[in-house]
Specification:
By secondary structure, the protein is an alpha/beta fold. It is built from 19 helices and twelve strands. One of its GO terms (molecular function) is ATPase-coupled lipid transmembrane transporter activity.
């Protein structure tokens, strides 16, 4: 458990040392009144009490309480501030690590599972550092100090008090083992629920449109039921063991009563000492019970640490020891092979995009076009061959330097829940407002932005929900223009747009592509008729290469796709009928 926490926090875990020492000193001071009580009882039984002594004892007791409160306060403040600081660093490291992971990791994991690790699991580990750790330390130190004090007074009664501890400890270890097994299942159930919640919220419009609210809510309800059942199992399995641990601990008090009574009757024990043991023993058992409960909580939350450690263990894309930068920006793929796990996606892909040229990739869905674009940005590492920019393998470039060279506009661009100005400025964080407006004007989105209620200060909404699809695309183009990278990748950026937005978007793309190396993934073939070269991709291979006028005359896949799009472009829906009728 503690090894897991150390592996997550690293050397920064040492920041809790001061808080631990405050807790140790607090527990020592906490045990001090027992020594004062021993003196008071001895004086009372010997009738050696005076007003001066009572005042001295009272003042001493007040000082002890004040010192204990001060140490407790300082320890809590140190634990809270340092624990929060440690976990802030962990969150930053997690974000940085996620940024360096290949995209394949995100395609294998649900968004809800990842967000659960980043949010809930990190919060649980933070709770260990800021609260539970010092609580357990204090709950162990106080009984140890009390036991030393009792052994100093009378070793016989001290053994009677302590004897139940070794008998109870196996139950505590057992509860930790049980919690470790069940907590991982409970964590998985919580992550699954997070995924279903995200799915339900993100697709609520689609669910309503298809009248699937009941069916989808059933999936969510099942995830909730699983989490409920796993949570109940955790409590049902571990709680009786922890309660039994506490009961066996308390048996030591019974042994103390029996032993003390026997020694008193035999004249082998002073009454004041017996009273001291009765009073102090309560301080001995109660912290141990608290320690048992806290340790069980920690073991449960440590499973959250295991999930964080698993995320850190995911292998990031390696960075070069001696990075290189290209002087030119032509793109070259040399006999590239790529697979998702055992599924082969690309096989022997080979082509060039000369600098300041526009090359288009076309083909059916699932042919591997977007994968090729992702490999140029090194979202994944290839299985064979090489991807080069300016003659340099992308694996020999720093990831940040590589991504700085490439502007990507996707079919469904994502806008952050920030102002439109802030979204455009993502392309160049230090851009002035004048530069932002200039990019918006070039992307033909300035006109609709200034008509919005707050203009450039209008919040785009989560994912750009406050804007239409065409408006989101044009803002994405403005963002890419502001970045002004020498390489532009357009991943079906004009797909599924209405004619008016397509005209604006095509003008914006033409400006964006000026004097750039451009790779276009196109669904609408009419948008890439002027491309310098067109590559037809099917089943992970390039099967045709040429210009539009060349490919359209060949009896190949491009020719068939062109004819199909021309045919579909001449169809319309006839009112009340599910069949199309060709226009005259």
């Amino acid at each position: 458990m503690f090894k897991t926490i150390r592996s997550i926090t690293g050397q920064s875990g040492k920041m809790l040392t001061r808080a631990t020492w405050y807790t140790v000193l607090e527990m020592i001071v906490n045990a001090a009144p027992a020594g004062l009580l021993f003196v008071v009882l001895a004086s009372l039984l010997q009738e050696e009490v005076s007003l001066q002594r009572m005042i001295w004892w009272t003042v001493s007791l007040l000082v002890m309480f004040a010192l204990q409160a001060l140490l407790a306060s300082r320890g809590q403040i140190e634990a809270q501030s340092n624990g929060a600081s440690i976990m802030k660093d962990v969150r930053l490291r997690l974000g940085e690590h996620l940024r360096k992971l290949p995209m394949g990791y995100f395609s294998r994991r649900d968004q809800g599972e990842i967000s659960h690790t980043l949010l809930a699991n990190v919060d649980e580990v933070e709770m260990i550092l800021t609260h539970l750790f010092n609580q357990v330390i204090g709950s162990i130190i106080l009984p140890i100090v009390s036991a030393v004090f009792l052994l100093f007074i009378d070793w016989r009664l001290a053994l009677a008090v302590i004897i139940s501890v070794p008998l109870a400890l196996p139950l505590l270890f057992w509860s930790q083992h049980l919690m470790g097994k069940r907590s991982m299942k409970r964590q998985a159930a919580a992550a699954a629920l997070q995924s279903r919640l995200l799915e339900y919220i993100q697709t609520i419009r689609l669910i309503k449109a298809h009248n699937q609210t009941g069916q989808r809510f059933t999936r969510l309800d099942q995830a909730m039921a699983r989490l409920r059942d796993d949570s109940i199992r955790v409590e049902v399995i571990t709680s009786p063991v922890v309660m039994l641990f506490s009961m066996i601990l308390e048996l030591g008090f019974v042994v103390l009563l029996l032993t003390g009574t026997y020694l008193l009757e035999g004249g082998l024990l002073d009454t004041s000492i017996f009273f001291i043991f009765l009073a102090v023993s309560m301080k001995f058992y109660q912290p141990l019970r608290s320690a048992g409960t806290a340790l069980t909580q920690m073991r449960f939350m440590a499973s959250a640490g295991e999930r964080i450690r698993e995320l850190f263990a995911q292998e990031a894309l390696p960075e070069p020891k001696h990075p290189r930068l290209p002087n030119t920006f032509n793109i070259e793929l040399e006999n590239v092979d790529f697979a998702y796990g055992d599924k082969k996606i690309l096989n022997g892909i080979q082509f060039q995009v000369p600098e300041n040229n526009l090359v288009a990739l076309v083909g059916p869905s699932g042919a591997g076009k977007s994968t090729i674009a992702g490999l140029i940005s090194r979202f994944w590492d290839i299985n064979g061959g090489a991807v080069k920019i300016g003659g340099i393998d992308v694996r020999e470039m720093q990831s940040e330097e590589l991504l700085a060279m490439i502007s990507t506009v996707q079919q469904q661009p994502y806008l952050f829940n920030e102002s439109i100005e802030a979204n455009i400025r993502k392309g160049k964080p230090n851009a002035t407002i004048e530069e932002v407006i200039e990019a918006a004007q070039a992307a033909h989105c300035h006109e609709f932005i200034i008509r919005l209620p707050q203009g450039y200060d209008t919040v785009a909404g989560e994912g750009g929900a406050a804007l239409s699809g065409g408006e989101r695309q044009r803002i994405a183009i403005a963002r890419a223009m502001l970045k002004n990278a020498p390489i532009v990748v357009l991943d079906e950026a004009t797909a599924s747009l209405d004619p008016e937005n397509e005209v604006y978007l095509q003008r914006a793309i033409n400006k964006l592509a000026q004097n750039k190396t451009v790779l276009v993934i196109a669904h609408r073939l009419k948008t890439i008729q002027s491309a310098d070269r067109i590559l037809v991709v099917d089943k992970g291979k390039i099967i045709e290469v040429g210009r539009h006028v060349e490919l359209v005359t060949q009896n190949g896949l491009y020719h068939r796709l062109w004819l199909e799009q021309q045919r579909l472009g001449g169809w319309r829906i006839k009112g009340g009928s599910s069949e199309g009728t060709k226009r005259a």
